[in-house]
Amino acid sequence: MSTLPFQQSDGPLRRPPELGELQAQGPVHPVTTAVGDPAWLVTGYEEVRRLLADDRLGRAHPEPERASRSGESALFGGPLGNFDTEQTDHRRMRALLQPHFSPKRMRALRPRIEELTTTLLDEMEAAGSPADLHAALALPLPIAVICELLGVPYDDRDRFRAWSQAAADVTDRARSEQGLADLFLYGRDLVARKRAEGDPDADVISCLAATDGVGDDEAAMLGMSLLFAGHETTVTAIGMGTLWMMSTPGEWQALAADPGRVDATVEEILRGFGLGGGGLVRYARTDLDVEGVQVRTGDLLLLDTGAANHDPAAYPEPERFDPDGSGAPHLSFGHGARYCMGAPLARIELSVVFAQLVTRFPGLRLGLPVEEMTFDPKTLTGGLTALPVTW
Ligand code: HEM
Fold first, then answer.
1. Is residue 145 within 8 Å of residue 101, measured between CB atoms?
2. pLDDT, tens digit (0-9, with 9 covering 90-100), for 147-198
3. Does residue 96 line the site of ligand 1, with CB under 6 A?
4. pLDDT of 229-252, one tens digit each?
5. Which of 218, 256, 52, 5 is nearest to 205 (CA)?
6. Ligand 1 within 6 A of CB of 341
7. 312: cis peptide before it, omega within 30°?
8. Which residue among 37, 41, 146, 253 is least enclosed by CB atoms within 10 Å?
9. Where exactly are the structural domains of the chain?
10. For the structural domain made of 2-390, what CATH number should be given?
11. What number of CA atoms fall less than 13 Å from residue 339's CA on the CB side?
């Protein structure tokens, strides 16, 4: 039986060989998670997509203390929520957040995102080549955007970034729980301040705090989940997207010559940046048959969207960066009832970033060979710790 995580012995831009071998054998595999628990790893595109939309799976567990875990992260490593009420609770959460994330609202943010990106790139250019694109752009931009949207002071970024990173630690449960607790306490203070300021339209957290029936704890919890969900993945997508494009000869120049390709490029970056070997955590709410495999109530399923996005049955050449390809729509934002609420925002951020980057730095190059880049294996998204570039 395979044990997670798989070794990425072919480098950071290629599927782990062991995952490729598993995928060639079928779509569902018994595995041992990184913390030694049994799970089913689902790697086929069609199966992952179907199971993401299947309400016989959920995030809660009938006996949480006995549940298999995928890792030590307090939020993502194990069960979440109340088994009996999770579907109603989840619908309530979405109903509260949805009005703030409509595509129309997100589109209205574009000019500000463009302005923030331009300022960061001005600073990077003024400081001169070489630069660290991670520190100069990939990290600060999503943080600045989510701060403005939520009404979180940008000056607090070092503190909440440290807590988010601790919360996302997949290797140390105590650290992860402490990070989450710190974030929550910070959120509670913020909600109290917003209530005192009394301007319900100022930002998302003010608005949540002013919503009938939403208490301080719930407003803080929702606000902090957004703060967390709203930056970590986007930071990783900007870094990995740049890395992937720079490693595909001609791709940067093709985009510089035709900025109209940016949206297709962003979709391809989103498809490619997670390589599989993990996945979205789900627990079976009932016994079920998955492609001939008998799954029992409470079993852990890892719906591996990264593997699905590289399934040769859905993408003829899964490891080729190909914005013009005719493969299936990627599953990087999930699918079904829990589809990412921030997808329209993330798409705008990535589109603005890559449109401005190629236009201003058509000669951008990596400052180090891909093999020498460093990643953070402790965090959920496993993103780059630095991205040296020259121009
Ligand atoms: C490239 C960037 C992003 C990626 C790849 C991403 C990916 C995902 C995925 C895969 C899920 C589904 C989780 C599951 O099914 O268990 C999700 C959910 C979510 N995302 Fe994102 N996300 C990104 C950016 C954002 C941003 C910018 C925000 C908010 C500002 C956001 C807010 C959310 C929220 C609130 C959910 C929970 C939805 C639910 O449970 O119904 N995400 N995201």
1. no
2. 999 999 999 999 999 999 899 888 999 999 999 999 999 999 999 999 999 8
3. no
4. 888 899 999 999 999 999 999 999
5. 218
6. yes
7. no
8. 253
9. 2-390
10. 1.10.630.10
11. 12
